[in-house]
Amino acid sequence: MTGSEGVLHGIRVVDLGHHVAGPLAAMLLADQRADVVRVDRPGAEPPVEDAFFNRGKRRITLDLKNGRDLEIARDLVRRADVLVENFRPGVMDRLGLGWAETSAANPRLVFCSMPGFAADDPRAGVPGWEGVIAAATGNCRIRAGHAPDGWDATRPTYTALPVASNFAAFCGAFAIVASLTARHRSGRGDRIEVPLFDAMFEAIGGSGAYPVERGLPPERAISSNGSGTYRCADGRYVQFNPIGATTRFLTWFLDAAGVTAWAGEGLTDRPRLDRDPELRLLLQERLTALFGTRTAREWEDLANAAGVPLAAVLTTDEWLDNVHARAAGQVVEVEDPLLGTTVLPGSAVCLSAAPPLRARPRHLPDADRAGILADLGTPLPQAPPAEAGDGLPYEGLRVVDLTQILAGPSAGRILAEFGADVVKINAPQRRVGAHGFVNRGKRTALVDVKSGAGQRVLWRLIDQADVLTCNFPERTAERYGLGYEHVRARRPGIVYVSVSCYGPGGPWTGRRGYETQGQAATGIMTRTGGDGRPAVLGPYNLLDYGTGTLAAFATALGLYHRAVTGEGRHVRTSLTQTGLYQQARYAIRAGTATSAEPRGPEALGTDPWHRFYRAADRWFFLGATRAQLSALPALKHALAADDAEAALEAVFRAGDAAGWVERLTAAGMGAHAVTPLAELMTDPYVRSRGLAVSQVSEEAGEVVMPGIAIRVRHNPPRLGHPVRRPGADGREVLAGIGLADSADALEQAWAVQLTALPGGWDPF
Predict the structure, then answer these.
(1) What is the CATH number that goes with domain 604-678?
(2) Residue, of 456 and 476, whose pLDDT is higher
(3) Does the domain made of 394-581+721-753 have the CATH classification 3.40.50.10540?
(4) Alpha helices, DSSP H only, in 614-672?
(5) For the sheet containing 190-193, what is the strand order?
(6) Around 188, how many Cα atoms within 13 Å sit in the side-chain half-sphere?
(7) CA distances (Å), 110 to each of 564, 597, 622, in order?
(8) Between vectors from CA 530 to CA 529 and to CA 535, what angle results, nearest 5°?
(9) 19 backbone φψ class: left, alpha, beta (φ>0; ψ -120 to 50)
(10) pTM of the entire structure?
(11) Three-class SS of residue 733?
């Protein structure tokens, strides 16, 4: 395998997916040059987004209700390494393409299923529309601090972005590559299940993690150090986010803006800001006036020159034309066979290769029929001899995790769940911030990687590592002597993982940013805010945790490549590329009109048959067709009204949500009551499935948090031990690298911290 061939060159994938989750997972594999055969249904007119979801795949049209076509599909699967599907549970079994049949015929098959709800979920038969999953997981609330004035907090809001499907695809693609790595040792395939409902627990992340003694904290707006969205002199907005345990970003910004004197009034005093709401309000008022004195572009240039996290709020179209997005390969052009020159998102992850892999346009349905059928006439592939052993894919591998906040640490947590020994490094003598949940299952040490003595400790760890993850600003790692080339020179087989806001390869590479900057730059905030003030999408950090999952996917690709070739890789992910993928179906431009979509906080759905309705006691989501609704006698009168939507509102308001959901789902429609997060995290099914778990923390007592979203049959991922207090494993870590006798001296030299450890469950 060479860099130009792609990491997954030679891997055969059958894509039986539909809508988003299955096709997207298969496309992530196709972008790494897996040979993906897309099986299309006959007669379907491909929508515009087909140009993205099915790019780089060979295609054949098969009617799986036809015996001859079904046998062709079975023959394809017998020759495949991977099968991807996202039908409702039971459909594949009825077709004779279920796990039992396919694995018996092809024991090396990795079978990935992404239904709306799991096979053992009481809701398994409910259509898993995005709105249904959003209602079931509380992903239909406006982010605190972004609601219009006078907003009813019980009212849901609808987003057209397929968040649950995207997370299922990200998780599924990672689990597939991890299972291929395990298969390289064992010779045995595996069955993966990532229901859309389950995948949302990866998105919920730290929002659902809390010490039981304190309870689930109320959702608060991010306003520390003056964070917020501000209107500028040109009428445009910027998203300013100088978060952190100190006010260094705020101080840098005020200095650059020429208002250093504000510090004398206490406006950069973090302890005072934390305890004095009037001082925080004064800072917000001052910043509001200050931002009104220059254009958004001027503020963006000033802030980024000062190293401060700030981004102008753009539209998705503007990001598609952005010079950085183009230079970084986050946006690419392909020559589509129907649409001509088409602009769409580039690869989700970046892997070091020479030359870089180019995006490939889609083929049209059935375009490759002759070649695919000819392949079926060749002998079945012979499985290469496998190495001895079984177990979790990354058992025995060591990861050094230098990342902070949410995205990078989430990748390390996922790797730990799949068997890796992860050592989390934080800086000593400072407040850690976000630590709980994302660092479950890791060992933890406090090491000053900037000092000479601390670097000697770090290099001892790297000398034993298979993976190094970091999210330093661009060129910072090089200044510390920890860049990829430095590490590769000493550890040639290392998989070096870089996580950033804007990604490599363009003029914005060195800019700082967080979740909100990623949403602002890529157009999500404009889409969510509708025609009014821009707003952050959803109650959960969709870019942070999405990027963490994609970073795990990129790492899995690097580790698979190493398992096959012995070579390491530098892999990269970014918040902005994740932001573009979250809205990929609306990020395709081919000179034609873009798809209409509901926008803004007031949106409840796409039409009267696919939207949120208020019942007598609470809101619920309905996903159906008019024909399905007309089959219910109680709704016929409403459907005959001049304004069917208003009539349905009145009918639904007369009954309770549970009753309506029961009647609607019994008739084969999608429906689900809106479930608040606190209710979700204590739901008996969620607890029994391990999607919400309790552990006992040495620091905080019993803690509740999301469990594991990915289910694997033969090699199930492990939860890992409870989150330790930062630095709690310091002596053990030092002993493991031969420095047990030097521990006290290293602490005296301020290279490590072993005592008076900071809290790990402190609010961030």
Answers:
(1) 3.30.1540
(2) 456
(3) yes
(4) 626-630, 633-639, 644-653, 657-666
(5) 58-61, 35-40, 12-15, 82-85, 110-113, 190-193, 711-712
(6) 14
(7) 17, 36, 34
(8) 5
(9) left
(10) 0.97
(11) helix
Q: Is 399 helix (H, G, I), strand (E, B) or coil?
A: strand
Gyration radius from the chain CA atoms? 26
Q: H or E stretch including 377?
A: none
Q: What does the pLDDT look like over 580-596, one tens digit per residue?
A: 999 999 999 997 555 67
So where are the chain's domains?
A: 244-308, 394-581+721-753, 604-678
Amino acid occupying residue 491 = R
Q: What amino acid is encoded at 61 in this protein?
A: T
Indicate the residue type of 221.
A
CB 639 within 8 A of CB 647: yes
- Contact yes or no for 552/411 (Cβ under 8 A): yes
Q: How far apart are CA 177 and CA 569, in angstroms?
A: 15
Neighbours of 719 (CB within 10 A): 16
Token pair listed for 717 = 């991922």
Question: Which residues, 6 or more positions from 178, have their beta carbon under 8 angstroms from its beta carbon?
Answer: 393, 394, 418, 556
pLDDT one-digit tens code per residue, 641-656:
999 999 999 999 999 9
Classify residue 242 as exposed, middle or buried by CB count within 10 Å of its CB (0-12, 13-18, 19+): buried
In angstroms, rounded to a whole number, what is the distance separating the alpha carbons of residues 425 and 435? Answer: 11
pLDDT digits (tens, 9 = 90+) for 403-438: 999 999 999 999 999 999 999 999 998 877 778 899
User: Residues in the chain, how many?
Assistant: 764
Among all chains, which residue has been given the structure tokens 């077709």? 95
